[in-house]
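Title: Prediction job returns without error message
Component: structure pipeline
Severity: low
Priority: P3
Assignee: unassigned

Description:
Job completed but the reporter wants confirmation the result is attached to the right record. Sequence as submitted:
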Amino acid sequence: MKCRRCLRERECNFRVRTDEINLTVCAPCAVEARRLELPVEALSEKADSLLAMIAASRTLKNHPESR
């Protein structure tokens, strides 16, 4: 299934919803949506843990002094 944000052929396990947006998205796009403080819904338990791991790894990359 194509990600509705980046249009790449990736597994879409997340939904981003606002009053005007309702998209199924891939993990990297879901992380970006959370960074923008948009509500992100994981469509499975596996997806929820994946999103947390990706977000944590990006935090470490952005703040190398915290290692």
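Comment from assignee: result matches the submitted record. The mean pLDDT is 83.
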